[in-house]
Amino acid sequence: MRPLLLLALTFASPAFAAGDIAEGKTLFTSRCSSCHSVGPMASSGFGPQLNAIAGRHAGSLKDFEYSNAMKQSGIVWDDKSLAAFIENPGKLVPGTKMRFWGISNPRKIADLLAYLHTFK
């Protein structure tokens, strides 16, 4: 089964959809925080800050210089698009400036999304 299809099926399961916030925090700290920030003092730096990412139009923060590909992607971030981007940024948005190999484990992606959802 393709990873994105598996991910879509696992997000449909209520037990899986919640993710583990603590595990997501650990993952964010180890894999994301060198470029992205969250929380009350978050600001864009090497990557955009990720507070209130759900519902945000891709490439829309004024304090970050996105690639043209991201600005023109037409994406509004939700769990499905975020999961696809986390899994393989260059596949979802060819030409993105994000240099990240991705995370293929659906459970880890769900954990990371659960953590990001705590920053509204």
Automatic annotation (TrEMBL):
SUPFAM superfamilies: Cytochrome c (SSF46626). InterPro entries: Cyt_c-like_dom, Cyt_c-like_dom_sf, Cyt_c_1A/1B. One of its GO terms (molecular function) is heme binding. Keywords: Electron transport, Heme, Iron, Metal-binding, Signal, Transport. Pfam families: Cytochrom_C. PROSITE patterns: CYTC. Residues 19-120 form the Cytochrome c domain. Residues 1-17 form the signal peptide. This is Cytochrome c2.
